[in-house]
Amino acid sequence: MHKKTITLFLVGTCLAASAQAVTPIKNASAKTLPVAAVSAQKLLPGQSSIHFTSTQMGVPVQGRFTRMTGTVQFDAKNLAATRIAIDVPVASATLDSEDADAELPKADWFNAAAFPQASFVLNDAKAIGQGQYEVQGSLRIKGQSLPIKSTVQMTQSQGITWASGSFRISRLAYKIGSGPWGDTSVVADPVEVQYKIALAGLAPF
Predict the structure, then answer these.
(1) CB–CB of 191/53 below 8 Å?
(2) What is the pTM of this model?
(3) Are strands 49-56 and 160-170 parallel, antiparallel or unpaired?
(4) pLDDT tens digit at each of 205 positions of the chain
(5) Contact between residue 133 and residue 151 where contact means Cβ atoms under 8 Å apart
């Protein structure tokens, strides 16, 4: 089994974090943020990061995505009005290897031609104290949409709000790596996704 191919498969397991249609958190009676406040909020892709860690033959292997876009409407005092959606172009996945990266968009891996975006959309959120929020949403990769949960730590510094956390996915559930690549003795099924999302325009909390 070629090392390059195994490594490619690891990247396929990673996705973490990203958005299709924006879905409001449940609570039809809740007030939404003023238009001016909503328009001022934005995701800062250049300061954000999404990394992933998989396991090959018992050894952790790390990768990352270099591009993302998204929309945000967040109010710590009115979570029912919060909306968050993130899109990640799957062709931006990298292991910092030219050979490996060239293979990733192909049909055996992310199939970027048919499924160019991985997407996350927030469905629900609740505050659990100490600047932490328990969030639930849908993560769509390669045509498969599955629920995920994550604990998000929110902090603010110099006008930027940071949303950091992690979650675990099953690469096999997203049908990434078929045939012989389904062998979990070579590449483990669980994959950890770590994110740190930078947001601008949010009110102090």
Answers:
(1) yes
(2) 0.80
(3) unpaired
(4) 444 444 444 444 444 333 333 333 344 333 444 444 455 899 999 999 999 998 888 988 889 999 999 999 998 889 999 999 999 999 999 988 888 788 778 877 788 999 999 999 999 999 999 999 999 999 999 999 999 999 999 999 999 999 999 999 998 899 887 767 778 898 889 999 999 999 999 988 8
(5) yes
